[in-house]
C-alpha cells in the first residue's frame, strides 16, 4: 500500500459552453428542440407543430471536441510491466443505453402571484429549483418545485432539460399554466442516454498470479449538450479503479469528448459498471494467462483489510473483499456450478460460468431532514423524491425505531421545495446512507430534547454530512449456454451476494437487487442504441430490446450485513448493485463458454447475432 503515497493526478476541464433552449443558428443534433407551440389541447399543439417547416442545411459533424481529461498515477507502472511474468489486455465497449423509466419526463408549471410552481418529474427538486431560478433570472424563493412521486428515473431525471426550462418560461411569459409530457420517442431522441464509454486496460501479473500494475484508458463520448451530470460517469470509472483489487502501480486516464448525438448523463451505476467490467474482464484474462481458476486469481488480489484504502484518486473505506468472495463461493456452491458446466461441456454444449466482483461507492456529502414529534406521531420531511423505491416505508421504519413508535405513526413527506428541507437529491445510492442518516440524527436530537424536558411539538432540522463515503460490495455469478449453430445465449441461472451495510428493509433491498440485475442483464445481452449518420435507428421498443420477466434467469440472492462506519446509520447503497456486477459476470460466463472455439473478445450486448458472428469468425481462423 505504500506506493499510493506517490499518487499523482492531473486534470483539465473545459468550461461548458452556453446551450440554447431552442436551437438558434445551428441544430447540433437530431432530437434538439427547434420550436415550441403552446395550445389549449395537445391535439391543437400537434396540429400547429405540423405547420412548422424547417429547412436545415446539413454540414458534416465537427470532430469530437475534447472537454475533460484526467490522469492518475501511483507507483511505477512502467517498471512493473517491464518485469511482469504475464501481461494481459482487454477492451470493453459499453453500448449506449436508453434509461427508459416507466414515466417519461413530465412537467406542469403554474404562475403564482410572485413566481411559479412547477410539478416536475425529477430526482433533485432543490437542484432543479436552483437551476431554473438561475436560468430564468428569478430568485429561488419565487419558485416551488414539487416532485412527490416519480415513475422511475435511473439517473435520467437528475439534471434539468431544455424542454423543462421552456415550459416554466412559457408559463411565466403567458401568465397561464403550461404542461408538457414527453412521448416515448422523444425520450429515446432527446433525454439523456447512459454508458457509451469504452475502456482499455492492461494488467501486469507476476509468476504467482499477483497483479503488479494496471494501465487503463477510458474514452467517454458525451452528447451535443452537457447536462450537469455529463462528466460523472467518466470521472467515477477512473476514481473507482482498481476497484476491489490491491494493485500497487497504476496509470489511469479518462477523457471525455463532445459528439453530435443526444446528451449522455448518469444512468444506474454511472461509471461503476464500467470500472467493474474492466477489472473483471482483466481478472479473467489473467486467470487464463496464469492457468489459475478465476476464483483463485481474485482471491490472491482482492483487498483483505477492513478500513481505509488509498486508491489512486483518493482514500476510501475498504472491506475484506477476499473473504467476502470466499463466503459467497461457499454459499453459492461454486464448485457445483463448475461441475455442472463441465458435465454440459462433456455433452457437447458451449457452457460457461463467470464471476463479477463489484464495489459500489454510495455518494459523498450531505443531505438534510426535518422531523416533528407531537402526541405520539411524527412527520419526516426529506428532499429527494420517491422514484418507486419505497422511500416512505424505509424512512418510516427508521424514524419509528429511533422514536420508539410504529411505522404507522410516521408520516413521510418528500419532494417539495416549499416544505421539505434542502438536499442534493435521490441519486448515486445516497438517499439511505446519507439522507436516512439525517433522519436518524434528527430523531436522536428530538429524543435528547424531549428527555431534557422540552414540550411537544418538537421539531429538529438536521443537515447531516457523512464523514466518509460508504462502499458497498458484492459478487455476481452467471451460468450460460450458447447455441453452437445460432449463437442464441441462454442464461441458465445466476446468484449474487450483496453487502449494503445495515439493511433497513430486506424486501425493498431485494427489489433493488432484482431491478438492478434486470437492467444489468439488459445492458449485457439486449440493449443498445444505434446511430447512422446522426440519425437514431433504435427510437422505439420495436428496435430497442428491453428485458422482460421471461428473459430473467433464476437469481439466488445472498446478503451479508457489514455495518458502514462512514454514516450514522451504517448503511450503504444497494440500488446500483445489479447493474454493476451482473454485466461483468455475464460477459465472463459467455467468454468462458467459447474458448473451445478460441473466442477471446466479446462485446455487449451479447445477442445471438454477435455470438454467432464470434463463433463463425473463430472457426474461420
Ligand atoms: S445514475 Mo443514479 O440516479 O445516480
Main sheet attributes: strand count, strand direction, barrel closure: 6 strands, mixed
Class by SSE composition: alpha+beta
Anisotropy-based shape: globular
Tally of DSSP β-strands: 24
Q: Could you tell me the strand content as a percent range?
A: 25-35%
Q: State the strand order across the main sheet.
A: 1-2-12-11-10-3
Gyration radius, to the nearest Å? 25 Å
User: Which homologous superfamily in CATH is the superfamily of the domain at 277-362 and 472-620?
Assistant: Aldehyde oxidase/xanthine dehydrogenase, molybdopterin binding domain
State the helicity in percent bands.
25-40%
**CATH level-3 fold name of the domain at 277-362 and 472-620:** Aldehyde Oxidoreductase, domain 4
Key features?
621 residues; alpha+beta; Aldehyde Oxidoreductase, domain 4; six-stranded mixed beta sheet; four-stranded mixed beta sheet; 15 helices; 24 strands; disordered N terminus; binds dioxosulfidomolybdenum(VI) ion
Amino acid at each position: 500500500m505504500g506506493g499510493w503515497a506517490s499518487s499523482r493526478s492531473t486534470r483539465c476541464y473545459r468550461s461548458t459552453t452556453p446551450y440554447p433552449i431552442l436551437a438558434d443558428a445551428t441544430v447540433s443534433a437530431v432530437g434538439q428542440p427547434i420550436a415550441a407551440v403552446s395550445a389549449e389541447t395537445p391535439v391543437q399543439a400537434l396540429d400547429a407543430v405540423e405547420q412548422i417547416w424547417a429547412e436545415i442545411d446539413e454540414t458534416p459533424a465537427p470532430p469530437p471536441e475534447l472537454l475533460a481529461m484526467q490522469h492518475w498515477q501511483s507507483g511505477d507502472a512502467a517498471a512493473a510491466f517491464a518485469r511482469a511474468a504475464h501481461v494481459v489486455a482487454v477492451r470493453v465497449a459499453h453500448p449506449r443505453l436508453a434509461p427508459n423509466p416507466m414515466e417519461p419526463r413530465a412537467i406542469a408549471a403554474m404562475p403564482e402571484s410572485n413566481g411559479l410552481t412547477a410539478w416536475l418529474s425529477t430526482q433533485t427538486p432543490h437542484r432543479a429549483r436552483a437551476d431554473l431560478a438561475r436560468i430564468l433570472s428569478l430568485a429561488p424563493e419565487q419558485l416551488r418545485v414539487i416532485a412527490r412521486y416519480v415513475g422511475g428515473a435511473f439517473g435520467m431525471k437528475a439534471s434539468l432539460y431544455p424542454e423543462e426550462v421552456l415550459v416554466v418560461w412559457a408559463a411565466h411569459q403567458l401568465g397561464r399554466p403550461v404542461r408538457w409530457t414527453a412521448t416515448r420517442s422523444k425520450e429515446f431522441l432527446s433525454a439523456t442516454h447512459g454508458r457509451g464509454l469504452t475502456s482499455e486496460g492492461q494488467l501486469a501479473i507476476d509468476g504467482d498470479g499477483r497483479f503488479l500494475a494496471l494501465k487503463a484508458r477510458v474514452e467517454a463520448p458525451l452528447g451535443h449538450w452537457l447536462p450537469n451530470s455529463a462528466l460523472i460517469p467518466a470521472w467515477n470509472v477512473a476514481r473507482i479503479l482498481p476497484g476491489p483489487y490491491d494493485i500497487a502501480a497504476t496509470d489511469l486516464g479518462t477523457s471525455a469528448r463532445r459528439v453530435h448525438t443526444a446528451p449522455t448523463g448518469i444512468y444506474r451505476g454511472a461509471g461503476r459498471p464500467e470500472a467493474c467490467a474492466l477489472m473483471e474482464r482483466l481478472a479473467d484474462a489473467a486467470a487464463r494467462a496464469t492457468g489459475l481458476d478465476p476464483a483463485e486469481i481474485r482471491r490472491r488480489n482482492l483487498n483483505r483489510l477492513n478500513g481505509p484504502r488509498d486508491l489512486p484518486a483518493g482514500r476510501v473505506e475498504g472491506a475484506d473483499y477476499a473473504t467476502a468472495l470466499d463466503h459467497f463461493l461457499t454459499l453459492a456452491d461454486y464448485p457445483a456450478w463448475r461441475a455442472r458446466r463441465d458435465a454440459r461441456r462433456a455433452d457437447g454444449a458451449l457452457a460457461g460460468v463467470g464471476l463479477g466482483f463489484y464495489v459500489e461507492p454510495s455518494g459523498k456529502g450531505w443531505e438534510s431532514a426535518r422531523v416533528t414529534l407531537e402526541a405520539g406521531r411524527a412527520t419526516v420531511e426529506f428532499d429527494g423524491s420517491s422514484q418507486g423505491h419505497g422511500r416512505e416505508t424505509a424512512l418510516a421504519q427508521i424514524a419509528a425505531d429511533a422514536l420508539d413508535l410504529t411505522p404507522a405513526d410516521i408520516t413521510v413527506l418528500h419532494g417539495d421545495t416549499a416544505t421539505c428541507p434542502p438536499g442534493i437529491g435521490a441519486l448515486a445510492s445516497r438517499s439511505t446512507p446519507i439522507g436516512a442518516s439525517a433522519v436518524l440524527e434528527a430523531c436522536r436530537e428530538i429524543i435528547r430534547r424531549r428527555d431534557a424536558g422540552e414540550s411537544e411539538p418538537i421539531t429538529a432540522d438536521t443537515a447531516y454530512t457523512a464523514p466518509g463515503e460508504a462502499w458497498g460490495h458484492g459478487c455476481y455469478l452467471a451460468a450460460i449456454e450458447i447455441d453452437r449453430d445460432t449463437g442464441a445465449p441462454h442464461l441458465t441461472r445466476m446468484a449474487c451476494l450483496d453487502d449494503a451495510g445495515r439493511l433497513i428493509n430486506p424486501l425493498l433491498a431485494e427489489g433493488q437487487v432484482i431491478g438492478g440485475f434486470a437492467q444489468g442483464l439488459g445492458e449485457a445481452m439486449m440493449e443498445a442504441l444505434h446511430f447512422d449518420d446522426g440519425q437514431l435507428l433504435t427510437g422505439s421498443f420495436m428496435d430497442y430490446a428491453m428485458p422482460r420477466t421471461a428473459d430473467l434467469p433464476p437469481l439466488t440472492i445472498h446478503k451479508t450485513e457489514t455495518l458502514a462506519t462512514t454514516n450514522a446509520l451504517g448503511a450503504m447503497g444497494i440500488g446500483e448493485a445489479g447493474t454493476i456486477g451482473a454485466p461483468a459476470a455475464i460477459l465472463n460466463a459467455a467468454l468462458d463458454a467459447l474458448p473451445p472455439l478460441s473466442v477471446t473478445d466479446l462485446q455487449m450486448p451479447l445477442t445471438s447475432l454477435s455470438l454467432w458472428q464470434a463463433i463463425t469468425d473463430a472457426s474461420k481462423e
